[in-house]
From TrEMBL:
It comes from Mariniflexile ostreae. It holds the Pfam family Citrate_synt. SUPFAM superfamilies: Citrate synthase (SSF48256). Belongs to the citrate synthase family. This is Citrate synthase. One of its GO terms (molecular function) is citrate synthase activity. Keywords: Acyltransferase, Transferase, Tricarboxylic acid cycle. The lineage of its organism: Bacteria, Pseudomonadati, Bacteroidota, Flavobacteriia, Flavobacteriales. Pathway: Carbohydrate metabolism; tricarboxylic acid cycle; isocitrate from oxaloacetate: step 1/2. NCBIfam families: cit_synth_I, PRK05614.1. PROSITE patterns: CITRATE_SYNTHASE. It catalyses: oxaloacetate + acetyl-CoA + H2O = citrate + CoA + H(+). It comes from the Bacteria.
């Protein structure tokens, strides 16, 4: 087959692949995933090494522009982001209109979309220079929106952080004003958050990233594309799993800690319950991010002096699942979100903010994928279907219908 001819073919054979389990939607040079071996690399660098040695902003630069930044490039990138971190005061009025009970993912998706209204020049971007402006704007403003979403919910004043701090330290500062009275503790939290955000930063063509690319393929602006990605991330089968995991672990604890009972529930095909935080579309061996996070959860809780009984329940479930033929046969292992919520909770982040923290981490990945898609001048995303409805029918007047 001459593949180049397929570029123009719109009729003829249509493949159907529900859930796109075996369908590639694009070529990409950003993230490499080998599910069977548990390998994850950003731009060729292993996730283990990046989580150990890099900080989140360096990783963001790497994902978006393809290379690790030099010190000069990194400083300029950070300065450009800081210069764009102020959001319009009227955004506070929008935030005011939400009930305190609103789910933070709904709030943050709306506020991100609203950024387009306050920055109309961000809609029609074509040159690399215009793209760069949108990129630093969203990286500057999004953490402010995240912090304000949390603080508004808690009835606390909305303000900015401290420009002299690093990107991640400033995020914690904005969220908690004083992350912790003790400097040592705040360093522990900054390092843990840095690691968590790096581990979430990209994961090739997952549900939310595919959403960002497909919305962006219509040449909708970056902020609108990212707002759509946030909505896609919200669901419990995707990013919402981190909230669902903690709620599940809490429920098991309240129910007396009987993990076996919940294992049986998860295996019962009549019961819609699934073991949240288990299974992955691509990783059929182990999720390399889960390994790193499990270790980090131990370290963070220990250094903060927190003894969290749900960590023991999580470890118990993992141990049982690894020995259970149902999970072994289906290759269901803990995924990135099985342990992340335990760390977020240790940091004092409320459960319904967990998926927002995931969005904060995934932001560079969404940006990188959007930018790659635009620079490669990809066509508008427009899947086909196999029609299974009625064949042609004659119209019946309303008084003659039975
Ligand atoms: N608990 C119990 N059974 C499960 C689970 C689970 N967590 N996950 C999959 N299965 C079973 C399915 O029932 C199915 O069984 P069957 O073959 O007897 O019908 C089999 O394993 C395959 O499952 P699928 O749903 O077909 O796998 P898919 O690749 O479509 O789904 C997904 C992957 C959505 C992650 C799934 O494993 C799941 O729902 N996990 C729980 C939610 C979760 O943790 N999501 C976060 C994913 S990571 C992320 O997005 C950041």
């Amino acid at each position: 087959i001459d593949i180049s001819n397929l570029r123009t073919v719109t009729d003829g054979v249509i493949t159907i692949d529900p859930g796109y389990k075996n369908t590639g939607s694009c070529e990409s040079a950003i993230t490499f995933l080998e599910g069977d071996k548990g390998i994850l690399r950003y731009r060729g660098y292993s996730i283990e090494e990046l989580a150990e040695k890099a900080d989140f902003l360096e990783v963001a630069y790497l994902l978006i522009f393809g290379e690790l930044p030099t010190k000069v490039q990194n400083d300029k990138f950070h300065d450009d982001i800081k210069a764009q971190s102020v959001v319009d005061e009227d955004i506070k009025k929008i935030l005011d209109a939400f009930p305190r009970s609103a789910h933070p993912m709904g709030v943050i998706a709306s506020l991100t979309s609203a950024l387009t209204a306050f920055n109309p020049s961000s809609v029609n971007v074509n040159s690399e220079e215009e793209m760069y402006k949108s990129v630093v704007k969203i990286l500057g403003k999004f953490p402010v929106l995240v912090a304000w979403t949390l603080r508004k919910k808690q009835g606390l004043p909305l303000d900015y952080g401290d420009d002299s701090l690093g990107y991640v330290e400033n995020i914690l500062k904005m969220m908690f004003r004083q992350p912790n009275s003790c400097y040592i503790q705040s360093k522990i939290l900054v390092n843990a958050l840095d690691k968590l955000l790096i581990l979430h930063a990209d994961h090739e063509q997952n549900c939310s990233t595919s959403t960002v690319r497909i919305v962006g393929s219509s040449h909708a602006g970056l902020f609108a594309s990212i707002s759509s990605g946030i909505s896609a991330l919200w669901g419990p089968l995707h990013g919402g799993a981190n909230q669902a995991v903690l709620e599940m672990l809490e429920a098991i604890k309240e129910d007396g800690g009987d993990t076996k009972k919940y294992m049986e529930k998860a295996k019962d095909k009549e019961d819609p319950f699934r073991l949240m935080g288990f299974g992955h579309r691509v990783y059929k061996n182990f999720d390399p991010r889960a390994k790193i996070i499990k270790k980090a959860a131990d370290e963070v809780l220990e250094s903060l002096g927190i003894k969290d009984p749900v960590l023991d329940i999580a470890k118990g479930l993992e141990k049982e699942a690894l020995e259970d033929p149902y999970f072994v046969d289906r290759k269901l292992y803990p995924n990135v979100d099985f342990y992340s919520g335990i760390i977020y909770r240790g940091m004092g982040i409320p459960t319904d903010m967990f998926t927002v923290m995931f969005a904060l981490g995934r932001l560079p990945g969404w940006i990188a994928q959007w930018r790659e898609m635009r620079l490669r001048k990809e066509p508008i995303g427009r899947p086909r279907q196999i029609y299974i409805g009625a064949t042609e029918r004659k119209f019946v007047d309303i008084e003659d219908r039975k």
